[in-house]
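Order emerges. As here.
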Amino acid sequence: MELYTINTDYIDYLKKYQAHIWDNEDNGRLRPYAGIVLTVGGNNYYVPLSSPKTKHQNMGDRLDFIRLEHRKQLKGVLNLNNMLPVNESLVKKIEIGSIADNFYKNLLNLEMIDIRRKQATILRNANIIYNKTTKYRNEPQNQRLVSLCYDFLLLEQKLKEYVAGYSVQE
């Protein structure tokens, strides 16, 4: 697994169709958020990393939430409910070694160590979430999870429309 950034134009496009997608820019300044790319349901999905919040301190790993720790200290989280369908033209690999900011470089390296350690769990959970919120979305036991997750099938359709009708900006 590697870290990637995601195209801002594509994020802005998806935000028209799905509430609560995170901005990739802050007042015109590219943030950008970093994430990993997984194959889920036959599609590539981008799973953004998130900085730890106070509410995350006492939360354990669960189906849609993975803690990234180093020496029992929370460094970041993966919210699998926020994964977005992508193709290779919409993501750009982060070359951690070329990052000038040593604090950020070290943080990403520590997060990647835990991501690789938990890779099997991340992939398994992402596929379970995808199936429960697509194929089995109408099952009563899946309603809470459906309410927490993006509409993956809608976003997959929007990815196809975006790629077919919009130019991707670097």
Summary: The longest helix spans residues 102-117. The longest strand covers residues 43-50.
